[in-house]
Amino acid sequence: MYSIETLQERMEDNQNEEKAQKMAQYMRNQFSFYGIQAEPLKRIVKEHIKQEGIPSPDEIHAVVKALWSKEEREYQMVALRLVDEYIKKYGIREQDAALIEYMTVHKSWWDTVDHIAGKHASRLFAEYPHLLQTVGKEWRGSTNIWLRRVMILFQLKYKEKTDLQLLEDIIRENTGSDEFFINKAIGWILREYSKTDAEWVQDFMDRNDALSKLSRREGLKYIKKHVN
């Protein structure tokens, strides 16, 4: 059975109260922290994997949920990294969509959701595009803003492989939202894609006057700086 007991011991041994308070404040005091910064946490994960290995396909869902249930935010960061390594070793399965959804809707904030969108959902839909008509459609229509943010952002690194009609449809579905994290995500995906096709992004904005000021401002940053 996969164990996270020694992981907890390592976390507790590396806690820093002063840094923990600052990290909690940065995250609007939504989560508790041990105060372990990125590089030390990376070493802890590496040591843990060396000792316990990477959870198998039969274990990964239970291990992630166990880590997600813990109070300190660093445990969710560890869970994300274990999923990264799991995907590298075993690939991703259709049924892992349920795990992606679980991580997205529980203890939701940009730090976990953006990682999930860019590394997990992106891989899922790239390998199983038919899931866009089932899982993807469900997430697009969800009242949960974080699932909708995942659908806006999962193509963030697709570049020339971006499905432009899908992207356009998803953005239009979310246009008019007063949610900061939705409008910010729209601007982010447009800005990122403008590095691949600035003309398309500019044309899309010209055709969509209802885009929020935030989405428009974020989406045009690269174009204004790099494109004459």
TrEMBL record:
<dbReference type="InterPro" id="IPR014825">
    <property type="entry name" value="DNA_alkylation"/>
</dbReference>
<dbReference type="InterPro" id="IPR016024">
    <property type="entry name" value="ARM-type_fold"/>
</dbReference>
<dbReference type="Pfam" id="PF08713">
    <property type="entry name" value="DNA_alkylation"/>
</dbReference>
<protein>
    <recommendedName>
        <fullName>DNA-7-methylguanine glycosylase</fullName>
    </recommendedName>
</protein>
